[in-house]
Amino acid sequence: MRTLHIKLRRNLWTLREQGLAIALVIAAGVATFVMSLATLDSLRLTQQSVYASQHFASVFAELKRAPEVTADRLAEIPGVAQVATRVQAPVTVRVADFPDPVTGLMISVPDGRQPALNRLFLRAGQWPEAGRDDEVLLAEAFADAHGLVVGDRLAVVINGRYQRLRISGIALSPEYIYQIRPGELFPDFERFAVMWMNRSALGAAFGMEGAFNSVVLSLAPGQGTASVIEQVDALLAPWGGLGAHDREDQISHRYLEDELQQLSAMARFIPLVLIGVAAFLLNVVAARLIRTQREQIAVLKAFGYDSRTVALHYLMLVMVVVLLGSVAGVLLGVWLASGLASLYQDFFRFPWLEFRLRPSVAVAAVLIAGGATVLGTFSAVRAALKLPPAEAMRPAPPARYRRTVIERLGLQRLSQPSRMILRNLERQPVKAGLSMLGIAFAVSILMLTGFSRGAINHMVDVQYRLAQKQDVTVIFNEPVSWRAVHELRSLPGVQHAEAFRVVPGILRNGHRSYRGAVHGYRADSALFHVLDRDLQPLVLPEEGAVITDHLARLLDIRPGDTLYVSVQEGRRPTLAIPVAGLVTEYIGVGVYMQQPALERLLREGGSASGAFLAVDPTYLAALQQALEDRPTVAAISLRETLIRAFRDLMEDNILLFTLFSLFLAGTIAFAVVYNNARIAFAERNRELASLRVLGFTRAEITFILLGELVLLTLLALPLGFALGAGLCALMTIAMQTDLYRIPLVLTPATYAWAAAVVLGATLLSSLMIGRLLRRLDMVTALKGME
């Protein structure tokens, strides 16, 4: 065996550059696997730790106003372990030297102490002093966005009354790990603030002395939420209950769960593609190595080594490369996971982060990489098993030469080196096909890592350019009469105003249900459009509703069926709404109908939950000031501000992802192309040396070898584009959530990016192979067994 070990070391040294390139591909796949699962495990562990230590509630309910004694009746519900009532108030915040409107939410805490549920983590400062009405705790995300520290003051409008409040501390809450304004897709830390104030102070400011408008509950171990929610709704209905819900529908938790779900899909999809490419490369390398070493295999068998030992020798060669790549991948994955977990802190404001790498994850990564490559190289190794010594002693039979298609077509004007390239490809179609397939895999992975940015930009353009054309969206504290909207039309700079109605409810079809809302819009709306599949404005039906196709799948409902809606406000009726059609949307799910039809079902006059405004830009600042002073206005959002905030967020985080994708995909592209070039050189160095002896110049033999590589790359691009489109389609299916769906949008830039990186890898490989050609020793190359 010592002889085989020496041969193994020599083979590894001879193939060191090819082996290193393949090891890099394996490392990329293993690193992605370890990074994704380690980050996922760390976020899960942190989530569980924070929820447990901060006593995160299990059931949430909001209402108009209920006396404090109602809490005692809630505590008597079977299965309820603890009840915490509170006051919540929408506020407007004015930040010095920041012109954009800032909305916020003020939440009460017991005077001078922690709440029983949804406890706060104090990052800096101290708790508001009991009895003080001018101190607040400020959420860390908003404080960091504006550079606010303990002791600074904020101007806040609560219930139409202006107050200056001192920041006594910076805090984080398990309820706002993902701090996002309701109805939006991405967080905007600059324009949405969460604050906590003493209960007595906020109750007095909002007219809630001895009452509450929000309650959270924890449950006994093993207690289900359905029966508790039903009884909570029954108790709070007389007090304007808006419908209780469990943790699964709490917006922060829901966004976090969706992100973790997508991270899990990525951990199981992308690494397997990368490892599959590595297995394919190893199969090609092993097959060609065995083919070039057939005489050596014959000698080994002639000296008494059995077929199994010879096969094991070549399998060990493969496993050394796999082990090298796997170890490097695990180390790289741990480093990337720690960086990615820190990046997630910009989105998910955990008080702390508990990093964990389970040994089983590292072991699984190595086993998957090893198993995939062993399976991938099995056919090549089996060839070494079956090769009889007598046959192997003879050189491989020469290829049968015949007139090629090029020659039969009479295309003799091509230069002799060009004809040699075409002849070689035609006479070895399997080899050429495998080389093209390897390059196509590299193109497809580049498309997979590059399409997301174009898809997200398309989502934003559709949502904020085509569907929503308003300059300003105004949300009222509660439904108001249309007179409030008419008053908005009279404000300076308002060119057009349109009311809309949003009715929260539980959407049902049979045993399936979903907590959502019914949206009512004007049939002739100019500022908001529901779009059809061709992104054209859809005319809403006079009766019935259209719903998003994702919601239809969730509820298993089709056009012609009846959607039942248990309204969670007002008299809380149950509506029966015919489904007239389906629409495709990327953000959220919804039910859309004409506002008059919705009002008839609700048996109410003209009312509005908010308004869309078209505004003269020169009056925008004055309009913001006028709207902030209106006590009925809960929130103001500017369309261009939302788009700008999204762009800023993406610029901060896409750069890191782009650099990682470039490294990942560039490594794969280079490994594929370089291996093809290096193997072609190893197989043809004798032929190229012969051509040099016959008088071909160095430039001509370089053109023959590298011209074939470039031609294969160009031919592989269309196949790679097709494979990439398929992988991107699978990725969009795997990453669909209720909150948003990434569309399959492949822009010219996506294809150009993939092609540019692969062509760049081809150029770099050509330069490296060209260096070998310049050092080609004709005498040595022409020596060999005949």
Rounded mean pLDDT is: 82
Helix content: 40-55%
Structural class: alpha+beta
Number of β-strand runs: 20
Number of helices: 22
User: How is the main sheet built?
Assistant: 6 strands, mixed, barrel
- Please compute the radius of gyration using only Cα atoms: 33 Å
Content of β-strand: 15-25%
Oligomer: single chain
The low-pLDDT segments are: none
Question: In whole angstroms, how far apart are the ends?
Answer: 29 Å
Characterize the overall form.
elongated
Order of adjacent strands in the largest pleated sheet: 3-4-9-6-8-7
Would you mind describing this structure in some detail?
The chain has 786 residues and is of the alpha+beta class. Among the domains are: 63-254, no CATH class; 428-468 and 640-786, no CATH class; 494-615, no CATH class. Helices cover 53% and strands 19% of the residues. A 6-stranded mixed barrel has the order 3-4-9-6-8-7. A 6-stranded mixed barrel has the order 13-14-18-15-17-16. 42% of the residues are buried.
Question: How is the topology of this model organized?
Answer:
Layout: H1 2-14, H2 16-53, E1 59-67, H3 70-75, E2 80-86, E3 88-94, E4 102-109, E5 121-125, E6 135-139, H4 140-146, E7 153-158, E8 161-172, E9 192-198, H5 199-205, E10 211-219, H6 226-236, E11 245-246, H7 251-292, H8 294-302, H9 307-344, H10 359-386, H11 389-393, H12 405-408, H13 416-427, H14 429-467, E12 472-481, H15 482-489, E13 494-509, E14 512-521, E15 545-548, H16 549-555, E16 562-567, E17 574-583, E18 591-594, H17 595-602, E19 607-615, H18 620-628, E20 633-638, H19 639-693, H20 698-734, H21 748-774, H22 778-782
Parallel strand pairs: 4-9, 6-8, 14-18, 15-17
Antiparallel strand pairs: 1-10, 1-11, 2-10, 3-4, 3-7, 5-8, 6-9, 7-8, 12-19, 12-20, 13-14, 13-16, 13-19, 15-18, 16-17
Helix pairs in contact: 1-9, 2-7, 2-9, 2-10, 2-19, 7-10, 7-14, 7-19, 9-10, 13-20, 14-19, 14-20, 14-21, 19-20, 19-21, 20-21
